[in-house]
Amino acid sequence: MTGPSSAVVRVDAAPQPIRLRLTFTLLGYGALALLACLVAPLVGSTPISVSRAFDRSVPFADNIDAQIFFLARMPRVLAGAVVGAALASAGVVLQALLRNPLATPFTLGISAGAALGAMLAISAGAAVALGPISSVPLASLAGAFLATALVYALATRPGRPMSTAVLLLAGVTLNSFFSALILFVQYMADFAEAYRTVRWLMGDLDVGGFGPIAGILPLVLVAFALFATLPSSLNLLSVGADIAATRGVDVARTERRAFLSAALATSAAVALAGPIGFIGIVVPHLVRLMTGADHRVVLPASALFGAAFLVGCDLVARTVLAPVEMPVGIVTAMIGGPFFLWLLVRKA
Amino acid sequence: MFLQLQQVSFGYDPPSRRSRGAGPHGFSLRDVSLSIERGSLTGLLGPNGCGKTTLLKLMAGVLRPRTGTVLFDGRAIADIPRRELARHVAVVPQETHPAFDYSVLEMVLMGRHPHLGAFRLEGPDDLAIASDALTATGTAHLAGRSYMSLSGGEKQRVIIASALAQQPDVLLLDEPTASLDLAYQLEVAALLARLRGERGVTIVLATHDLNLAASLCHTLVLVREGRVLAQGATTEVLNSGMIRQLYDVEADVRFHHRSGHLTVVPIGRAQ
Fold first, then answer.
1. ipTM of the complex in this document
2. C-alpha separations of A229 from A22, A233, A306, B118, B207 in Å
3. Cβ-defined contact of A247 to B86 (cutoff 8 Å)
């Protein structure tokens, strides 16, 4: 042991070993996410007391505070956590894959594809279901796959890798194309339905109960299982496809798996809460500023921080105009829009 | 023979996914056979677009030949799993631009990937190997720095360190001195000679720098328009006749006593 450890000291004392960094990061961001999920339900238009909400001596049916905490607000907070984690992770994966820090499910049009699918299912009111997954997430998944397939074809075409300009233009094009189709679906819908879908399209975490969250959980779980296999390959892919191949990465398989998992996570998030924007770009960037670029740290940290971040944004959305509860998509766009512009300017 | 190409042909058309970033389309190698001895230092010479980079990629298993076979230590490269091959053959591309701001140590530790796989985290042994690679390339003092903030010469040495962290038997370099000033060119050349001498690493490098090749390489492979024009000992292959055939350039090739190797002075385009 003396040989290696003396050599380690010689390198540099500053960079901590990965194991330590991973543990600290996961504990830190995990605590943050947990805190957000516990504090957020306490805040709202009706003040409630923590001690009464958790008071077991009062039966649940008579405990108004507990009902507000667990039934009225907790689903919304949990939805925020799941959606935030899914979108932030999808952002990390797409950025590494396309070697571009501006790639996200939202800017690439994958969210819009998923939204179109979900809209069609909502409007049709189709009650098709595959096992535990109902028609809305399935249609959302189909839309996300369609958009992802287009991005994949662009990104892996022979010749030069996708430039920022091509990437952004492709995203703009896909977004406006899907938006047009969404408008068409809305136009054909009746008035009440149209109002409902407009609110959903703004990105709204008011999911109404635990049921919808359970409905998308299978997609989220598969996505995260795939995410878990990716980080060290993403490190190398973000350095270069050829260098990744000569370091033992199966590039084509990693690319397929990454696109698939990003599409799964995005479609689950969109099916639940509509196309909430900019989480996939704001969160990974803030995390990278704090932890460095290593994807083995950045990916799990972004999932946890994404959960905390969206729950926090939703807290603002619920309280800033109280008693009116805004869709959270308005808040994330207000933060994310300028942030995206800043990144674009800094990159250029 | 350690590394061997047997009647290898390769074409980029019809365009396929594999040709990504690999140069002009429609280009091909035709019927290339060559062998690299264990522990040798070989230079690939030839005009732009002659197929040097493609040859390196074929040797690294990044590209697969359309016909013919690439053998590593007697085994067809196509039959060797990617990760296993990466424990033996490492590549230093011409330029490396990561999309994110990794530290130098992180970049070098990525060289441990073929030994670790997707899930194992690097331990003290891997750090020791990375540290050793940093020391060997004279970049240990940069370990905590951001890779993006380095100069061209420093970046190139860090990428060589990252390749060394793979503990390869073969090191393939694509124009390792192209973006370096004179002092760094000499430094990289000295480093490569030392790696071969001290660690017995077999080295193949593609270069446009004939004097570097003359000073460093024992054997040369001359490539023109996808075919091998000549291969053999540097002292035999490097002469004005060959240079005319290779580049259409008239050049003086003389033994330089003070440096102890051949030097090439280009005179003008051949008529």
1. 0.88
2. 16, 8, 20, 7, 38
3. yes
